[in-house]
Design brief:
- With 75 residues, the protein is mainly β.
- 9% of the residues lie in helices and 29% in strands.
- It has a five-stranded mixed sheet with strand order 2-1-5-3-4, covered by helices on one side.
- Strand 3 and strand 4 form a beta hairpin.
């Protein structure tokens, strides 16, 4: 294919209420890109809970609203 490129376009996303530009394709890639690594976090995309096992298959789209929440200690 002439002119084809493997570069991923940057997406504008809203992460925890803040506009963020990312080249991540999946939710798993975004979590890694943002520095969460293997941290235990809860995630949602556009208000829908996304379990850890589904993050690699959850593709991102422009203007997605992502929530990443770390558990809190105490009571």
């Amino acid at each position: 294919m002439a002119g084809a490129t493997t570069a991923t376009k940057a997406l504008s996303l809203v992460v925890n209420g803040q506009t963020t530009v990312s080249r991540a394709v999946t939710l798993a890639e975004l979590i890694s890109e943002l520095g969460y690594g293997e941290a235990k976090v809860a995630t949602a995309r556009n208000g829908e809970f996304v379990p850890r096992t589904a993050r690699h298959a959850t593709r991102l789209a422009p203007e997605d609203k992502i929530e990443i929440v770390s558990p809190r200690q105490g009571g």
